[in-house]
Amino acid sequence: MTILVTGGAGFIGGNFVLDWLASQNETIVNLDALTYAGNLETLQSLRQDARHVFVHGDIGDSERISALLREHRPRAIVNFAAESHVDRSIHGPGDFIHTNIVGTFNLLECAREYWNGLEGGEREAFRFLHVSTDEVYGSLSAEDPPFAETNRYEPNSPYSASKAASDHLVRAWHHTYGLPVLTTNCSNNYGPYHFPEKLIPLVILNALAGRPLPIYGDGQQVRDWLYVKDHCSAIRRVLDAGRPGETYNVGGWNEKANLDVVRTICAILDELRPRDDGKAYQEQIRFVDDRPGHDRRYAIDARKLERELGWRPAETFDSGIRKTVEWYLSNSKWIAHVSDGSYRDWLNKQYG
Ligand code: NAD
Ligand code: DAU
C-alpha cells in the first residue's frame, strides 16, 4: 500500500515522513516543490530507502499529480504543502493565494477524478487528509474558551485567510462530490527540522550566534505549543480512524506567552551551552515592532480528538522544548546548511 504526501520536505511533512517510515512499511510518495522551506537534507537518512519516493513537483500541476495517482494508486493523500509563514504572507500574499488556495483546489480536483475511478474496497477506504491551522479561527481574548471545531472562521492574516479558503474548498468537495476528506486544525508546532525563521528555532540560533532575540510588541501574545511528533501521531490517528467529512482540532494543552517561551529557551541554553562571558542569554532579548494585525491568543480545545479517537499529546512543553534545544545543539550540519543557504546549492545541483 502507498500514501501520497505533499510538502513532505518541509518542517511538519518531513517529520511525518520520517516517523511514518520508522513505524511502518507502507511506501510514501512525497511530492514537494522545494520552495525555500523545502529541505531534502531533512530526509537524507531515507536516500537509500525504496519506501520513500521523492517527486519534485507542484500541487498546482494537475497533469503531474494525475500521473502520480495513476502510477502509484495511493490509498490516501495527506496535504501538508503550503506557504506557511505569517510574516512572509504580510510582505507578499500572492504565493499564499496561489499555493494554499489554487493549489489545494487543484489537488482536490485530481483526487476527485482519481477517487471516482476507484471501485469497491479501494474507493471505500480512500481518504484525503488536509492539514490546516488554528489561525483560521482568528484571535482569542484572555477570557475566551479555546477554539473548538464549531468556532466560526475569522482569519486575520493573508496566510490564515488562504488556509481558511482551502478548508472551505475541502469541506465543499465532501458535501458536493462526496470526496472522503478529513481536516485537522493544529496549533503552533515546534521540534526538530524547524526552519529558523519561526520563533523557536530563530531564538535558539540567534542566541548561540550572539545575535538579538526579537520579541514582537510586548511579547504577551499566547500560542498553544505542540511538539511536532505529537502532531504527526495525531495525523496518523485521524487518517486511521477519523470520520470522513469531520474536522479535528489538534493542540498541545500548552498555552505560553511568547516572552515566557523565549525566557525558557534562554534558561535551557544557560544550562547546556553557557555564554563564554558568563552572562545570561536573556540579555540578548530585544523588543521590536509588532507584527501588523498580530493575533493576541490562540488555544486549542483538543477534546474531540481525545474523546472520539483516543489521542493525547505525549510531550509537555517542558519536555518538548528541552528535546528541541538539545536537537539544535547536536545537529550543527543541518543548521549550518540552512543558515548559510547551502542546502539550496545541493537542491540546485540535484534538481537544476
Ligand atoms: P513548511 O513551510 O515548513 O513546509 C511547507 C512545504 O511545502 C515545503 O517543503 C515546501 O517546499 C512545500 N511546498 C510549498 N508550496 C508547494 C507547492 N505549490 N507544491 C508542492 N509543495 C509545496 O510548513 P510546515 O510548518 O511544515 O507546515 C505544514 C502544513 O501544516 C501547512 O499546511 C501549514 O499551514 C500547516 N500548519 C503548520 C503549523 C506550524 O506550526 N508549522 C501549525 C498548524 C498547521
Ligand atoms: O498557529 C499555527 C501557526 O503557527 C501555523 O499555522 C503557521 O504556519 C506557523 O508559522 C505558526 O504561525 P505563528 O505566526 O504563530 O508562528 P511564528 O513562529 O512566526 O511566531 C510565533 C509567535 O512569535 C507569534 O506570536 C509571533 C512571535 N514572533 C515571531 C518571530 C518570528 C516574535 O515575537 N518574534 C519573531 O522574531
From TrEMBL:
SUPFAM superfamilies (UniProt xref): NAD(P)-binding Rossmann-fold domains
Domain NAD(P)-binding: 4-324
One Gene Ontology molecular-function label: dTDP-glucose 4,6-dehydratase activity
BP term (GO), one: nucleotide-sugar metabolic process
Reactions mediated catalytically: dTDP-alpha-D-glucose = dTDP-4-dehydro-6-deoxy-alpha-D-glucose + H2O
Keyword presence, NAD: yes
Superkingdom of this protein's organism: Bacteria
Record Gene3D superfamilies: NAD(P)-binding Rossmann-like Domain (3.40.50.720), UDP-galactose 4-epimerase, domain 1 (3.90.25.10)
The enzyme's E.C. designation: 4.2.1.46
Entry keywords, A to Z: Lyase, NAD
Pfam family for this entry, one: GDP_Man_Dehyd
Obligatory cofactor(s): NAD(+)
Keyword NAD attached: yes
Annotated NCBIfam families: dTDP_gluc_dehyt
Classification via PANTHER family: DTDP-D-GLUCOSE 4,6-DEHYDRATASE-RELATED
Protein family according to the UniProt entry: Belongs to the NAD(P)-dependent epimerase/dehydratase family. dTDP-glucose dehydratase subfamily.
Protein name, entry field: dTDP-glucose 4,6-dehydratase
